[in-house]
Amino acid sequence: MTDQTKDVSFVKSVKEFWHALLLVVPITLGWIWFLFRNVNLPKEKKAELFWDMNAKNMDTFAENEGLKKFEADRNEKLEKYLPGSDRVLDYGCGTGTLSLRLAGRVKEIHGIDFAAGMIKAAQKKAAESGVDNARFMQATIFDERLEKRSYDAVLAWGILHLVDDRNLVMKRINELLKPGGLLVSATECMGEKKTPITSLLSFLMKIGIFPISLKYFTVAELEESITGAGFQIVKKEIMGDNPVSCFIAAKKMN
Ligand SMILES: C[S@@+](CC[C@H](N)C(=O)[O-])C[C@H]1O[C@@H](n2cnc3c(N)ncnc32)[C@H](O)[C@@H]1O
After folding, report:
1. Which domains does the chain have, with CATH numbers?
2. What is the C-alpha separation between 107 and 186, in angstroms, rounded?
3. What are phi and psi of 248, to 5 degrees?
4. 94 Cα: distance to centroid of ligand 1 (angstroms)
5. What is the pLDDT of residues 173-217, one digit of tens each?
6. What one-character DSSP code corresponds to residue 84?
7. Is the pTM of this model over 0.90?
8. How far is the CA of 159 from the centre of ligand 1 (A)?
9. Confidence band (pLDDT; 50, 70, 90) for 50?
10. Cα–Cα distance measured from residue 136 to residue 127, given in angstroms and rounded to the nearest whole number
């Protein structure tokens, strides 16, 4: 590596770390304040309430340069892999940004998220933009109101590294898809390599002030969960490397 390449890569790392700090610091400060106010809250409820608390800032966070740079690539992939899909489930839909973006291309899109604030924001955005084929519901993937074998595609964008039992979730996604249906996903694979961001998050989780239990696994482990649940991977691509973010489109085999 030449001195010039080293300089460029150092500047890139510093910039990426700075963008990550701009995201992580306000989130963490907000959370510390929240912890302080709700010290007796049961542990299981914390992650859900954390997301709920951040719902109002979610769209502002999405404008962060560190995330924004992936937007064009993300949109291109969504448009390529979800063209004309009749019924789509957007799992972990947040404030509905992706659902609303895709609504014009599909017959129906159904967003679910366990945080009430996210769903409220998504419903408000849908009403304001006059979209009438996107429905949003507060739910987990195991909610019995979701019909088995009823979706042509399940979008799981930025969620699989947040769930407790990835293998069970993958099986459930498979169950909700019609035969031949498609899983379209993007997942942070933080077990792939140590970066300043993964170390910072791990530290914040260890000392108990970061409420989300992020799961650290590799791309190979993610692939294993997907194929193990009865999918065939049709496309895999590394989208970002700090942390490693992996796009996977996979087809339900039967
Ligand atoms: C990183 S955000 C991604 C939002 C959206 N998919 C996007 O790309 O704009 C993760 C979302 O998943 C939701 N979430 C996290 N764990 C969940 C779970 N177990 N069940 C349902 N939603 C969950 C959070 O509330 C949050 O809105």
Report:
1. 3-252 (3.40.50.150)
2. 23
3. -135, 130
4. 5
5. 999 999 999 999 999 999 999 888 888 888 888 887 777 889 999
6. T
7. no
8. 5
9. confident
10. 11
Beta bridge partners of 231: 252
Is 122 close to ligand 1, i.e. is its CB under 6 Å away?
A: no
Q: Judge if the beta carbon of residue 155 lies within 6 A of ligand 1.
A: no
Ligand 1 lined by 151 (C-beta under 6 Å) = no
Separation of alpha carbons 199 and 239, rounded Å: 20
For 239, the token pair is 């989208």
Give the helix ranges, DSSP H, for the chain: 3-37, 43-54, 58-61, 65-68, 71-81, 97-102, 116-129, 166-176, 196-206, 219-228
> Exposed, middle or buried: residue 11 (CB in 10 Å: 0-12, 13-18, 19+)?
exposed
Residue matched to tokens 């408000």: 124
Asked if residue 55 has its Cβ within 6 Å of ligand 1, the reply is no
Tokens of 33: 């304040």
Which atom of ligand 1 is least distant from the CA of 94?
A: 27
CA distance 73 to 18: 22
Angle at 178 between CA 72 and CA 163, to 5 degrees: 60
**Protein residue closest via CA to atom 3 of ligand 1:** 158
Asked if 160 and 187 count as a contact pair (C-beta separation under 8 A), the reply is yes
